[in-house]
Design goal:
Blueprint lengths: L15 H6 L7 H7 L7 E4 L3 E4 L1 H14 L4 E7 L9 H14 L4 E5 L4 H4 L8 E2 L2 E4 L1 H5 L5 H21 L15 E3 L9 E3 L10 E3 L1 E3 L4 H8 L3 H10 L1 E4 L5 E3 L6 H7 L7 E5 L4 E4 L14 H10 L2 E5 L4 H16 L5 E6 L1 H7 L16 H20 L4 E6 L6 H13 L4 E5 L1 H4 L5 H12 L15 H13 L3 E4 L1 H12 L6 E5 L19 E10 L4 E6 L18 E2 L5 E2 L3
Helix pairs in contact: 3-11, 4-17, 7-8, 7-10, 9-10, 12-14, 13-14, 14-15
Length: 579
């Protein structure tokens, strides 16, 4: 469907490297907002380069777009199984949006806010790379507008209400052994995986075992990501199950009269953030769920805003298609009612070589030498991911995030495997070094793919299927497992969740992102393995049950050399070492 909006006037703001040194050269964010149809009263400024967009504006613009029949095209950006260096998914999502703007379309990108636990732990800055970043990058990586703080406060308020109710005579007859609501913290801290609270007796509360989880995978964060509007957010908060009573019946946030205060605390955080790309296009940033433990995509509200104001929207889902994309389709699309017109699957020659058994022991220079045979072996992983997306009936375009050492023969090998596996095409893109100019071919292919007649969307499993069957379906059809083994703890949880009326919820798999299996070192296209489910968590407000695969921890740890060791303040107050 062609869009009736006026053609975009392409403006380049500044290269990312220049932006770090001269933030005053970034486009005024008010100009970016007005360009996509936002009035001044629709936004709330935060510093020089960020505004929040009101929920009323989203509802108004969405209604206008639907009435005019000009709602944007929807593109999901996912990836093959990543290596620990990452394959540039955010960089590619930004570069694709910039390239689409360069060929005359009003394009936007939706990305998640980086977690401080990730920024200060293993990864460092997560705003994209090279000439394809979300700006201002420092603000994005260091807390932005305080949304994570609001999520943590709301989550912890509910935890405090549970303990207070127990202390104040336990009027809801809460069984302390059933309390499953964790507190949350932004920093990865292994010491808080399991803890005992209420020590000291008396005025210090009721002694019980508890845990902390990262803010990024708290249920409040997932609720914020999946809520379609303010009323839906409030309803979901009320449905949160904090514990069971001694008869096994759920005790909710509504029962403890805490859901209303949680909604108030999230009032500002519920509004998506508008930033800009390196070339001055709109970048919608909201929520920050991790795809290996949670849903792992930008919020429904941010996507609705982007689709109402852009001709085409590139929205990102974390890690590979076995995690981010599967959950996007089976959880987020059910919540939003929005179906992607196409999927862009990011790959790199280097990652394919790693999956082809090259570079595990040898140094990085091994990956810089042409090795078509290794690329073909590793492309079995890429083919598997194309097959995963095709399960849902959505067309796939492979984007090869190109490095200077990549060769034409390696690109051609990838294209041959990709097309044979069912992809529309495989296109190298050099957006990292060239910005939008380096992804023009990719942009043309994606626009053409979204212009084709839509194919029927197929969720992986029906809503009415039992939870066990849903888990087995994901494990067998997506991961390629031969079956699933459930621990006794998991079997009891499955039975209880279905007995109390939650058997129709979606499932959210928690596993290693570095393999299609549940073993991080099983690269390529593993076969002949079984998935082991050790436990399950109920997220009634978010609308899913999380299956924890064996060895999965909800709280990551810091590495031996955290990235925070290299971050400091320079003599003029500038931030050093963040990127």
């Amino acid at each position: 469907m062609e869009c009736a909006r006026p053609p975009v006037q392409h403006q380049v703001a500044v290269s990312a490297l220049e932006a770090r040194g001269h933030p005053s050269t970034i486009r005024p964010i008010a100009d970016v907002a007005r360009e996509i149809g936002l009035a001044d009263e629709d936004t709330e400024p935060f510093g020089r380069g960020v505004v929040k967009v009101s929920l009323q504006a989203i509802d108004r613009l969405h209604a206008q777009a639907v009435q005019a029949g000009v709602q944007g095209r929807y593109v999901l950006v996912t990836a093959m199984t990543p290596t620990r260096q990452g394959e540039g998914k955010t960089t590619t999502a930004v570069g694709l949006a910039e390239a689409l703007r360069r060929i005359g379309h009003r394009a936007g990108v939706c990305v998640r806010q980086p977690s401080l636990g990730t920024v200060l732990g293993m990864r460092g800055g997560a705003a994209g790379e090279g000439r394809c970043q979300v700006l201002p990058a420092e603000a994005l990586n260091l807390g932005l507008t305080g949304d994570f703080d609001a999520v943590a406060t709301a989550q912890n308020l509910a935890a405090a209400f549970v303990d207070n109710s127990m202390f104040q005579g336990n009027p809801h007859d809460i069984d302390r052994r059933s309390i499953r609501w964790p507190r949350t913290i932004e920093i990865n801290d292994r010491a808080l995986r399991r803890a005992t609270v209420g020590l000291g007796g008396g005025a210090n509360g009721i002694r019980r075992r508890s845990e902390w989880v990262p803010t990024a995978v708290s249920e409040v964060m997932e609720i914020l990501a999946l809520a379609s509007d303010g009323a839906d957010l409030r309803r979901r908060l009320g449905r949160i199950i904090l514990a069971d009573d001694t008869t096994g019946h759920p005790v909710t946030a509504e029962d403890l009269h805490v859901a209303g205060a949680m909604a108030v605390l999230l009032g500002r955080a519920a509004r998506p953030n508008l930033l800009q790309t390196s070339e001055g296009g709109p970048a919608f940033v909201h929520t920050g769920s991790w795809a290996h433990l949670g849903v792992g995509s930008s919020s429904v509200l941010a996507d609705r805003l982007a689709l109402a104001t852009c001709d085409i929207v590139c929205t990102e889902a974390g890690y590979g298609s076995d995690l981010g994309a599967e959950k996007f389709f089976d959880i987020k699309c059910r919540a939003s009612g929005l179906i992607p017109d196409a999927v862009v699957l990011v790959a790199t020659v280097r990652a394919l070589k790693v999956h082809g058994a090259i570079g595990r022991v040898a140094g990085p220079e091994t990956l810089d030498r042409e090795d078509v045979a290794a690329v073909r072996r590793g492309a079995l992983n890429l083919a598997a991911h194309i097959g995963i997306v095709r399960l849902f009936g959505v067309p796939v375009v492979v984007a090869v995030n190109a490095f200077p050492s990549d060769t034409a023969a390696e690109f051609e090998a990838i294209r041959e495997v990709a097309v044979n596996a069912g992809a529309v095409d495989s296109i190298p893109a050099r957006h990292f070094s060239q910005g939008g100019e380096g992804a023009l071919d990719l942009a043309s292919a994606v626009w053409k793919t979204t212009s084709a007649s839509p194919q029927p969307f197929r969720p992986l499993y029906p809503e009415e299927a039992p939870l066990r069957e849903k888990i087995e379906t994901v494990a067998v059809r997506v991961y390629g497992a031969s079956g699933v083994d459930f621990s006794r703890v998991a079997v009891r949880a499955l039975r209880h969740f279905e007995d109390v009326g939650f058997g129709r919820l979606a499932v959210c798999m928690a596993k290693s992102p570095y393999s299609l299996s549940d073993q991080a070192d099983a690269l390529g296209r593993p076969t002949g393995f079984r998935i082991k489910v050790s436990d399950l968590r109920l997220s009634a407000g978010a609308g899913f049950v999380t299956a924890l695969l064996a060895g999965t921890r909800m709280m990551p740890e810091l590495p031996a050399r955290p990235r925070a060791e290299g971050i400091d303040v320079g003599p003029r107050g500038e931030i050093l070492g963040l990127f």
